[in-house]
């Protein structure tokens, strides 16, 4: 499953443009009065301005499976990675065969670089923002994640992530290429103490050759 286009909100488009262009070094491919679109590998991340928006999102970027240590070095003097415990900034997801590091953008959104070791995407070139592969996860907050997952499966032919233990608190739809991470409201986004909130999110994804548009409020 591929997350082709994610549309989320920001209360400061100008500062968002500066962060993604100057700090993460990702190209802005479209800029309008109240929105910007950013190229992140094979995905497009769009921010729409809402002056009253005060919440946050969680999303992740896939990186080459052998590049997390280089990413950590690349982030020095750019962004502060979040400590998982002590001074360690690497999260280990054994069941998913993946490692990740987390950070915040200018909006307070919780972002993640994740290396999924079951994907054959290792690279020999030195890491740069051009090596960011795609948006690999977007968080969706819903009162019943498991039921929402079942509805998406029935309506669109999507599938639960086979490596995840899906439950009424936390469920994932998709695969290593792209995931909808569904959680209940007020569940803290790992590895922070920031509770999840339901926010308007529009998603265009591709699954088994089919284009699917989803909207969550």
Automatic annotation (TrEMBL):
InterPro entries: Glyas_Bleomycin-R_OHBP_Dase (IPR029068), VOC_core (IPR037523). Gene3D superfamilies: 2,3-Dihydroxybiphenyl 1,2-Dioxygenase, domain 1 (3.10.180.10). Residues 2-116 form the VOC domain. It comes from the Bacteria. This is Glyoxalase. It comes from Flavobacterium fluviale. The lineage of its organism: Bacteria, Pseudomonadati, Bacteroidota, Flavobacteriia, Flavobacteriales.
């Amino acid at each position: 499953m591929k997350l082709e286009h994610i549309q989320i909100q920001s209360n400061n488009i100008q500062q968002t443009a500066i962060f993604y262009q100057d700090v993460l070094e990702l190209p802005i491919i479209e800029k309008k009065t109240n929105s910007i679109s950013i190229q992140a590998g094979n995905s497009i991340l769009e921010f729409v301005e809402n002056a009253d928006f005060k919440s946050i999102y969680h999303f992740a970027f896939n990186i080459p499976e052998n590049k997390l240590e280089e990413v950590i070095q690349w982030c020095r003097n750019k962004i502060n990675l979040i400590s998982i415990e002590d001074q360690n900034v690497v999260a280990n997801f054994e069941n998913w065969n993946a490692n990740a590091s987390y950070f915040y953008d200018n909006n307070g959104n919780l972002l993640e670089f994740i290396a999924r070791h079951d994907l054959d995407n290792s690279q020999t070139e030195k890491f740069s923002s051009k090596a960011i592969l795609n948006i690999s996860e977007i968080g969706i907050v819903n009162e019943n994640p498991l039921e929402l997952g079942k509805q998406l499966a029935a309506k669109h032919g999507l599938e639960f992530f086979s490596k995840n233990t899906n439950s009424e608190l936390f469920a994932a739809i998709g695969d290593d290429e792209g995931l909808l991470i569904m959680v209940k409201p007020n569940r803290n986004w790992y590895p922070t103490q920031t509770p999840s909130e339901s926010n308007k999110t529009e998603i265009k994804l591709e699954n088994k050759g089919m284009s699917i548009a989803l909207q969550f409020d």
